[in-house]
Amino acid sequence: MLSVLILLTLVVIPVMATIPIATPILPPIFTDLNITPSEIELGTEVTISFTITNIDNQTLVYTVIMQIGELNFPIDVELEANESKTVSRSITQYIPGEYNVTIDSLEGSFTVKHPEITPPPLPPIISNLIITPDELELGDEVTINFDIENYGSQSINYAVDIHIENVNDPPPTWPPYDITMKTWVDLEAYEFKTVFFTITMDDVGDFNVTVAGMTASFMVIPPDPWPVIDDVDPVIIVVDPLEELNSRIDYLNTSLLDLSRKFFLLEAVEELGSKIANMETALETYSNEVDQQIEDLEKDISRLQTSILYACIATAIIAVLGAFLLIKRMN
């Protein structure tokens, strides 16, 4: 029995000496966790970097788990023996809050700031609409003024609509006088202003002015052909009926000339609209022709491709027949 044990010992020990023993791979070392920037705006990038070092004498392929909040991001890193490498990743966060970053034993954090929500500015208060004068002659200026006050804590640039409309029925001119003008007012926080707007009136009649729901009115009258002279002794003026008739005819001619100019402008606008419509029709026709040419070209290309395919097939058949005949002759 003892001799058997000695024999087994002599056989097993040399065999075990020839079996290689696998050395376990040492895990890498993590250092230098850097998070830049530490505070970001919503929807911007944060960059996370760290250094990983292979302390073993063997090549190492290692999967690093980068944990950001509740999420894990695997990163595959390959390191040669005793190599150090800096690994960097950039991510974008769309949810505000503080996020903890863990990589092996390294820990850090960054913050995603809540967006600043600026409330829209309050509209100003407009009041005290005044028209000066309330009666004027044709060609004179009328002044529209109103008060405007900013009750908000922000400076604003506010557009005020001023609507002027002839309210005579029927209107003295055609098309009726009806315009909307816009004036921009700059107001600092809590500032009060009186705004003045002046316009020269070239139409007669009764007019309404509307600003921010307020309405005021004024009247434009034709100029008096016979001005009143004050502070002089009364004199008797003998008016020649023919001269008066000529004066009234001149006034009517002036009015008709003004009316004809406005009709001419209206006709010019209508003619321009007609030309635009003709251009659109021509452009549509040209577009249809181009589409048809493209379609014909595509058909020609398809036919050409088919012809080329048939030619290739015929060439291949001829080549096969030639090879067959050559082989047959050689046999």
Q: What's the end-to-end separation, in Å?
A: 82 Å
Q: What does the largest sheet look like?
A: 5 strands, mixed
Task: Look at the structure and give the CATH class of the largest domain.
Answer: Mainly Beta
> Which second-level CATH architecture of the largest domain applies?
Sandwich
What is the name of the CATH topology of the largest domain?
A: Immunoglobulin-like
Radius of gyration: 48 Å
With strands numbered from the N-terminus, the spatial order across the biggest sheet is 2-8-7-4-5
Number of strands: 16
Order of helices and strands: HEEEEEEEEEEEEEEEEH
Q: Going by CATH, what is the homologous superfamily of the largest domain? A: Immunoglobulins
Overview of this structure, please?
This protein has three domains: 25-112, Immunoglobulin-like (Sandwich); 125-221, Sandwich (Immunoglobulin-like); 238-318. It is built from two helices and 16 strands. The chain has helices at residues 2-17, 241-330, and strands at 29-36, 39-40, 45-53, 60-68, 71-79, 84-92, 97-103, 106-112, 125-132, 135-137, 141-149, 156-166, 178-187, 192-200, 205-211, 214-221. The strands form four sheets. A five-stranded mixed β-sheet has the order 2-8-7-4-5, with no helix packed on it. A five-stranded mixed β-sheet has the order 10-16-15-12-13, with no helix packed on it.
